[in-house]
Design brief:
alpha+beta, 10-stranded mixed β-sheet, globular, AlgH-like
Length: about 190
Amino acid sequence: MSAITSNLTHHFLIAMPNMADPNFVRSLTYIAEHNEQGALGIIVNRPIDMTLAALFERIDVPLEADGLAGQPVYFGGPVQTDRGFVLHRPAGEWHSTLVVNDEVGLTSSRDILQAVGSSGEPPDVLVTLGYAGWTAGQLEQEIADNSWLTVPADLAIVFGLPPEERLAAAMQKLGIDFANLSESAGHA
């Protein structure tokens, strides 16, 4: 097993055009944790056919805060798709939060949804069903196999842009247009 050469926590993974896994085709994934045991992230550009209003009704949490009912719920990844995860800023103090850094957290407990429903806080939230996970060394191997590009995350992309613009915006941080990427890796 090889050691991690760089920590990709708080980075985006940009799926390359040759991505074989249909769960990740044209996806932008935010990495919330990356260590010697593996990596955990959520896809941030895949809204599903469910609104926050529908989700809150399904889990019997009142949604009284203004302006949130029509926001989409996202497909966060193929692991535990029956469980909700909330990427949010600020990180705050919730029952089950993975604090990514001083600015952002990923929470899987009901208390954050109750706060969002009653007060609209925290102000920046992205709610997903499921997450993406990699075992030790798996993500590093996928990057070596040219499945992903990486770039430091910019939360303005996640919380400030519509989902259909997020992938292209992350690519622009690398100075690359997605349309110019080839589906096959070059060999010298």
